[in-house]
Amino acid sequence: MDGRITATNAKLLGRTFSLNGTLWLSYSASGAEWEFFGTSCTVTLTGDFLSSDEIHSPRYAIEVDGLRIIDTTLVESMKNTSAAAKCVKHIVIADATPAHHVVRVIKLSESADSTLGIEGVMCDGEMHPTAASERKMEIIGDSITCGYGVDGALGEIYRTANEDATKGYAYLTAQMLKADYSLVSFSGYGIVSGYTETGVRRAECLVPPLYGTMGESYGAFADREKPREIPWDFTKFVPDVCVLNLGTNDASYCGEDPARRREYISGYKAFLSTVRACNPVAQLVCVLGTMDTRLCDAMETAASEYREETGDSRVATLRMTLQDMEKDGAGVDWHPSAVTHKKAAAELTAFLRKLLAWD
Predict the structure, then answer these.
(1) What does the alpha-carbon distance between residue 48 and residue 220 come to, in Å, rounded to a whole number?
(2) For the chain, does the N or the C end have fewer beta carbons within 10 angstroms?
(3) What is d(CA 244, CA 289) in angstroms, rounded to the nearest whole number?
(4) Which runs of E-coded beta strand occur in 274-349?
(5) Residue 200: CB atoms within 10 Å
(6) First vs last C-alpha separation in the chain
(7) Alpha-carbon gap, residue 27 to 41, rounded angstroms
(8) Distances in Å between the alpha carbon of 336 and those of 2, 22, 212?
(9) DSSP assignment of 86-111, as one string?
């Protein structure tokens, strides 16, 4: 089969967007997975104008039968191919004997940096979507959810090459719960302010205005369609649970100021109302604390007031354990290490198993 990836021949991972036959990926851990019986499979990928940027080029992985056989950035792939600019071909299966295979293409880097397109797939057998899970979860967050700097260390400069959402707590939790997932996350973003080193509110770095879109990126799908201008159809993925992990960046703005903390509480309640309107049947879970615990009380207050004001009882909270960098190390810019992410995933998984009765 030689063709395009669609929902009829592949399971779409996270939020994706089809444009002129190319399946575009913006968000962390978005992608596609399919199965087929045959001997060969070639995947063609493309990118936007940032594909050749050493800092922002999209990082991705290709897995075959559960094994990661390719893990690279598009700029690195382009150095080793004679294909046209911004387009690379990967021969991922070349066997002598036909066999059943499962192929997964997944974007490891986040929405902000750049976008990645699955331009086409050539298999010698008929492609089918892998089975959907009975469980579905959405995780809304910031750089922690993106797996920011997890493959780097303190002192290193952030680049897509050291970011891997599949090593982050959110993706790991979904895997442990055997749930299909969708990650909606932006490094440096918050509820009422993005990360600030001056105390001045960064109103341009907010998650709520982007929640109903295909993301925010320096790049653009096919260099012309900005993800933030494309609305997301919430009927395409209906989660059983929505996890909100927001407040780490807001803390840099709010600090201990009562008025600013109240601003965060009000903004959080408004965003809970938005998430509920978009996901009428989902359990909402508010978590915070892996990198900064200053707004944990405010997060819990927001959830409590929201429950009281709306009568919506399906809102729970969890204080995550603060990272121990001395013991478990740290990634780029003091972000959680792979060890910390695994601990956070175990903590969140145990909480959700009990809350949702997911044995």
Answers:
(1) 6
(2) C
(3) 12
(4) 283-288, 315-319
(5) 9
(6) 39
(7) 25
(8) 41, 34, 27
(9) TEEEEEEEEEEEEEEEEEEEEE-S-T
Strand 136-141 and strand 180-185: pairing? parallel
Could you tell me if 96 and 81 are in contact, meaning their C-beta atoms sit under 8 angstroms apart?
no
Q: Please give the structure tokens belonging to residue 38.
A: 């045959």
Sign, CA dihedral 344-279-295-333, equals: positive
Distance CA 214, CA 210 (A): 8
Look at residue 139 and give its three-state secondary structure: strand
pLDDT band at 3 (very low <50, low <70, confident <90, very high): confident
- CA dist., res. 228 & res. 217, Å (int): 8
Whole-angstrom Cα distance, residue 256 to residue 251?
8
Q: Which domains does the chain have, with CATH numbers?
A: 2-129 (2.60.120.260), 136-356 (3.40.50.1110)
DSSP class per residue in 182-249 = EEEE-TT-BSS----SSS---TTSBSGGGTTBS---SS-BTTTB-GGGSB--GGG---SEEEEE--TT
With helix as H, strand as E and coil as C, how does 9-53 read?
A: CCEEECCEEEECCEEEECCCCCEEEEEEEEEEEEEEEEECCCCCC
Residue 82, pLDDT score? 59
Task: Please compute Rg for the chain using Cα positions.
Answer: 20
Identify whether the C-beta of residue 58 lies closer than 8 Å to the C-beta of residue 113: yes
Distance (Å, whole) CA 189 – CA 207:
6
Tens of pLDDT, residues 323-348: 999 999 999 999 999 999 999 999 99
Bridge partners (DSSP) listed for residue 17: 24
Residue with token string 């499962």 = 102
Per-residue pLDDT tens digits for 277-306: 999 999 999 999 999 999 999 999 999 999
